[in-house]
Amino acid sequence: MLPLAWAAALAPWLVQPVAAQTAPGAPSVPAPAPVADAPPALKSSPRLTDPPEGEAAQQRPVLLQADKLTVRPDIDAVAEGAVEFRRAGTAIRADRLSYDSASDTATARGRVEIQRPGVRYRGSELQLQVQRFEGFFQQPEFELFELGSGGKAERIDFLDSARSRLQKAVYTSCPRDDGQGPDWLLRTDRVRLDLAANEGVAEGAVLEFLGLPLLALPKVSFPLSDARKSGWLPPTIVPLDSRNGTTVSVPYYWNIAPNRDATLTPTVLTRRGLALGSEFRYLEPAHSGQLKLHLLPYDRDTGTSRHALQLDQQGQVPVLAGLGGSGLRYSLKAYQVSDDAYWKDFSQTVPTTSPRLLPRDARAEQDLATPWGAVTAYARVQHWQVLQTGSGDDLIVAPYRRSPQLGLRAAPLLPLGLRAALETELNHFDRPDGSASATLPTGWRWHALGSLSRPFGNAGWWLTPKLSLNAASYRIDQADAALRRHTRVIPTTSLDAGMVFERDSRWFGRALRQTLEPRLLYVRTPYRDQSQLPLFDTAERDFNTVSIYAENAFSGIDRVQDAHQVTAGVTSRMVDAATGGELLRLGMAQRIRLREQRVVVSGEPQSQRFSDVLFDASTPVFNPWRLDAALQYNPDSSRVVRSILGARYTPAPFHTVSMGYRLARGLSEQAELGWQWPIYRGTSRPVGASGGCGGTVYGVGRLNYSMKDSRLTDSIVGVEYDSACWIGRLVFTRLSTGRAEAHTQISVQLELSGLSRIGANPLQVLKDNIPGYRLLRDTPGQPFSRFDP
């Protein structure tokens, strides 16, 4: 599977007749026109249809027009000057064409051209048995309109409607100028195309870039359509990696079946040795998933064998569908690596969000039909592999394992507009191996969460009274625990109310709709002493404009906040009256405690009567600027406790600069800068390899700077060069893996328009880290009126 996209795209047109729709009422040749009337003109039609087959094709007439026409009925015809020939779905234009009726052979010379939507090829001489589509085309040039690419061959031999051969074929997407050679081209000695087998075979394929051979393969096969086909993929090369040296990978794709495939990737790491990556994917009627394995039999740097395994599968078991729903649904997700330092050395094989905490998660759930409404039963086992490196503050405390987790969720059907929800679970919590949490307790917990509410209102207002219940029972494994067994039941009452006011407005001649949305939430929860209970899955919620309206300040089950409080907030929006797009949003919220909050996860009880005030704002109205801000302001100290400020400037495609500032007072202070911007524009007309630089150079990158530590934490800096027919990328990446450690990598990629990408792929890194980054799109080249590499 060498990236011979040109042959794949060209094959259907090179080996199939070009079809044309004839004008209604046009006479057929060789039948002579009536002498008394003027000869009817053949009307050209831009509409093309698929070639007819079988008997229908044989019955199609020959249509021929030219400046000079000599016809011997049922024998032959000779046309000269602006010739256009059509038969059996084939359309030929030439300076001179002769047609032999007995052998159904058309011979065209001069400027011979066959064209259909998306492709055109021209040559000096064509000989073709039209119905059987057997013959040859001398010195053809071809052009693919969609790709803006084309090429030439010494000769094309049409063996039948499905098979053909090309001799000395050359392909490129670079335009030519003043006889200069294209920046890149692909040369082949021979190419065999077989549509019936969906296979092409190229011999003596050499890829040249800037006049130098870049890649050569004696023989390679490739598919002739979008269908998958086994074969080698383009190599991936990482020239510099601070942990692995130079890395060279050559993937092999194995098309096992329509619903199964695999990719095997032999890899050479100059610092470590030989590795093998593999990925197996499958898609069954009731199951799907993938299995990945990365194996390094002997790491020269560590002197050990290393590996990584990833399993991701989901599906359903229809045999249990009779219980309700579509059956038992399940999912499996598991990661396993050989050692603690694996996430540093092979970051591409572990999850990017939690590289030191690898999940092993198995879930199953079943819908049950009951007279009281929908019920879902579920079970889960959740474990972790903890990767510990360093000591002291570098050690991490992993979440508890759940083995098992068993539960039921229900939404009972109630009259009078009442809404109810119920959840009950039984969990066993224990500590993962390697977690820095040897002193934390383990044990069993049963809990039940129930709620009953009655919403009132319409589009302009709402009022929802609600009663909630949080019940839990614990049995701790450790004999020295303060409370080995404990049960608690905590009720909560709340009242959520809000309104939406709207009015029409007009700014700068633009019709807008302005809203004013006040909201009040009253919560009352009695105090229960929970200080002796473990914290299996509970933490403080992040304080923001969403969590401030939560009834409980903690996530999880183990802590329920005692509360007698009111949360008040207001939001105003400016909305485009025509499109509904939000042009401006301003919001403010504050919590008012009517008594002290005694239940906390850490620290002292909360006696502050008025909480910090939250502000948030967002607007794209200052086009091309977009501004975002979120502030947490402490009225007692008159200081901003936390802030997130962001601005993005995007005046045009591929022109974006983003700036960000994050402050958590006393913890961190960080500034961010990201960009994609043209830094050099070449000449307006494309220039070949021998004529200098005629494209555009873009700078890309993102920098994260810690003001507290006075250092760059993560950085990505690179350049992209777009020459209209190829794109080059050079990206430098430095990501922190510890307080005094970083992983540095240089990625180089060459993207040839209409062909493939060669080298390491930095695109995912750029898209994930640069806000507003867009993939450069190739600009189609100039028409291929002449090809002279």
TrEMBL record:
Residues 1-22 form the signal peptide. Residues 326-671 form the LptD C-terminal domain. It is found in: Cell outer membrane. Its main location: membrane. The keyword Membrane applies. It comes from the Bacteria. Together with LptE, is involved in the assembly of lipopolysaccharide (LPS) at the surface of the outer membrane. This is LPS-assembly protein LptD. The gene is lptD.
